[in-house]
Design a protein that fits this description.
This protein has eight helices and three strands; from the N terminus they run H-E-H-H-E-E-H-H-H-H-H. It is mainly alpha-helical. It has a three-stranded antiparallel β-sheet with strand order 1-3-2. A hairpin with a 2-residue loop joins strand 2 and strand 3. The protein is flat.
């Protein structure tokens, strides 16, 4: 025996609206949560379903004293649907006008672009120019390493990196000295730790080698 399918959200909305329409009365949420299951809407989902109807202006909600009441009349729903219908009709009319404007604009842009020998020749020439431009751009990229401005920028970047590296080296030496002064009894453990992180006996400041442009090397 197949399991009974649960109600969809739209079906639940219809069931809850039917409660309002049949009685044309005012309800507290807890009353609706008791009436919902009679229509097949479980009480746990009544609150969310009713709130979705309120959000769509199909159910009215108001606080009277300390209690919040919900209600909906068929006439109110009819007015709401008519308002929605008018809004959609207005949007449809605006969309039609916009479509006509775009079609006219498209036709206007086509003028002067009709196929002709002169146009085909111009397009062919433009394509050739674009291809030549891309070739020259690629060729210039091959010589970027010999560009003076590029070389100076690379040289300056290497200098900054070198200075930063030696500042960290200096900080490491300072830290090692501090550890030796404050923890002399842990000398062996500290030396083992230094070796593990790569601070060996040959650890020292970096020397910045001279940099020569590729063009000068070729000459």
């Amino acid at each position: 025996m197949s399991k009974k399918r649960g109600l969809s959200l739209e079906e639940k909305r219809e069931k809850m609206l039917q409660i309002f329409y049949d009685s044309q009365d005012f309800y507290l949420l807890k009353e609706l949560e008791k009436l919902g299951p009679r229509k097949g809407v479980i009480s746990q989902s009544v609150k969310d379903v009713v709130q979705s109807l309120v959000d769509d202006d199909l159910v009215s909600k108001d606080k009277i004293g300390t209690s919040v009441y919900f209600w909906s009349l068929p006439s109110c729903a009819g007015n709401q649907l008519r308002n929605v219908s008018k809004k959609l009709e207005s949007e449809l009319e605006s969309s039609k006008k916009r479509h006509i404007e775009l079609v006219e604009q498209c036709e206007s842009l086509k003028k002067g672009r009709e196929d002709s020998d002169a146009r085909e020749e111009a397009l062919s020439e433009l394509k050739a120019i674009e291809q030549k431009y891309n070739e020259l751009k690629a060729e210039m990229g091959q010589y970027a390493d010999n560009d003076p401005a590029t070389f100076e920028a690379m040289k300056e970047a290497a200098k900054v990196a070198h200075e930063a590296s030696n500042r960290w080296t200096d900080n490491i030496f300072t830290l090692r000295q501090w550890c030796s002064n404050n923890f002399p009894q842990a000398k062996e453990q500290l030396e083992h730790l230094y070796n593990e992180v790569g601070i060996t006996d040959d650890f020292d400041y970096l020397e910045l080698p001279a940099v020569t442009p590729v063009k000068q090397l070729e000459e």
